[in-house]
Amino acid sequence: MSDATLPQDIRFDELRRSEERFRLLVERVQDYAIFMLDPDGRIASWNVGAERIKGYSASEAIGRHFSIFYTPEDAAAGRPQGLLRKALEQGRVEDEGWRVRSDGSRFWADVVITALFDESGTLHGFAKVTRDLTERRQVEALKEADRQKNEFLAVLAHELRNPLAPIRNALYLIGRPDAGPSTIREAHAIAERQVRHMSRLLDDLLDVSRVSQGRIELRRERIDLASAAIQAIDSVRGLAEQRGQSIAFDASPVPVVAEADPTRVDQVLMNLLSNAIKYTGPGGHIRVTIAREGDDAVLRVRDDGQGIAPEALPNIFDLFVQAKPHARSGGEGVGIGLTLVRRVVELHGGSVTASSAGLGQGSEFVVRLPVADAAPAPAAASGES
């Protein structure tokens, strides 16, 4: 006997039992938050998984707008309503991001919202399925951190090994019985340059560790940022000239003074200038600007070099992160200079940001430090090398 020949009340009874089994199945699922929204986005049903993941009981959740699960910034930006609109347009939408539990804590969620229409095309609401991926995301983050650390150690070993060959060759030349004064002077200069490179690299490594552990004590004094910038530019001028690059310098006619550790400010300037030289090709241009903006002493280092890919910008200051060739082409490095810049600047109560229009379009780094009230004697206003 087919279903069509069954009495109507038997078919309805079977349908009710089927619906009841499905309802019980959905309500008892614990690993997924499964619930319904009415057409306006208010919660119409609530399962055990929703209570476990989001922290609300059914009585607390039903009737409220589902935007309560979104971060304040996402809610203010209209993200919940935007997702419902996409579900209406596309039938379903999938999203991944931070969500908020009843106690205010956040979890990383994978969400699917499906629009529910009847046969006439009338919207009856939305089905929403949420999965908590926080633990998986943390595992992935740990794996990525471990990968970056291993890559960093490999590059560090390469950077430390590189100077050894020229130092070894210099020692060989110095030790030759027929080595003349000019050969000895040249070999000595080569060895000294490579030792300085290794020393700077190791100092940066140690400083990153010290800053992270709060072991750096700032020796603050009033410093004219223009004078500090001129001194740093003079230190890297030779390297820039070797690459055929020019460094322009502009400063406010009124001295810009910060209460800062001069050694650390020089460290920040040298790292930013070295970074600009490294990632700017022969014949490129670098511009350093000092100005006061409100209560901030502002230092800008801009170049017209290789630029930074958009996906690299959010992590450009992270430890162990160095822009890959596809993200920012140029010289080698171990990716600690910008990390050190950020941590030293933040230690002074300031901030540093990076911007770029994209690959091949240069980049700009902006350091902001709290300005001091009074100013010492003005430094030279501008120059170019």
Structure description:
The structure is a single chain. With 385 residues, this protein is α+β, with helices and mostly antiparallel strands. The protein contains 11 helices and 12 strands. It has helices at 8-28, 48-54, 58-61, 72-76, 79-90, 134-161, 164-175, 181-212, 225-242, 262-278, 337-347, and strands at 33-37, 92-100, 106-117, 123-132, 221-224, 246-251, 257-260, 285-293, 296-303, 351-355, 363-370, 382-384. The strands form 3 sheets. A 6-stranded mixed β-sheet has the order 10-11-9-8-6-12. A hairpin with a 2-residue loop joins strand 8 (285-293) and strand 9. The longest helix has 32 residues, at 181-212. It is elongated and about 95 Å long.
Tell me the β content. 15-25%
User: Structural class per helix/strand content?
Assistant: alpha+beta
What is the helix tally? 11
Overall 3D geometry?
elongated
Q: Overall mean pLDDT score?
A: 83
Q: Give the radius of gyration.
A: 31 Å
Biggest sheet features:
6 strands, mixed
Low-confidence sequence ranges = 323-332, 375-385
**Percent of residues in helical segments?**
40-55%
Strand order of the largest sheet: 10-11-9-8-6-12
Q: How far from one another are the termini?
A: 96 Å
**Helix-strand pattern, N to C?**
HEHHHHEEEHHHEHEEHEEHEEE
Number of DSSP-assigned strands:
12
